[in-house]
Amino acid sequence: MNQIRLPVGAAELLAYFEGVSRQDPDPHWRNGAEMCRRWMDLTAQPATQADIDQFIARVDTEPTPSTGWVDLGLQFRHWARAQHFDVPH
Question: Which residues have a Cβ under 8 Å from the Cβ of 29 and sit 6 or more positions away?
Fold first, then answer.
């Protein structure tokens, strides 16, 4: 049986969103890529609770979340918890 390897982490999710964006002009995909870049920026500097809250709020308000967006939110929340931030479920 063939298994599909799903993207893991901000960089792999960025590649996913950018790849789909090249095929589909819907801004949803470009927005997903931008969110991945924001996540990468947060890993490069000390993030604050306000940064985490803002990121999660943006993910949660995506009007047409695809499975990629859902995965982005889940993975970000996992990362933020590992960094000892308060993260709602």
Answer: 17, 18, 20, 21
pTM of the model: 0.91
Q: How many domains does the chain have?
A: 1
Tokens of 73: 């939110």
User: Is there a domain that residue 13 lies in?
Assistant: yes
Cα(64)–Cα(78) distance, integer angstroms: 22
What pLDDT sits at residue 64?
86
Residue 76 belongs to a domain: yes
**DSSP string covering 29-68:** HHHHHHHHHHHHHHHHS---HHHHHHHHHHHHT-SS--HH
Residue 20 structure tokens: 């789909």
Position 21 scores a pLDDT of 96
Instruction: Tell me if 1 is assigned to some domain.
Output: no
> Does any domain span residue 42?
yes
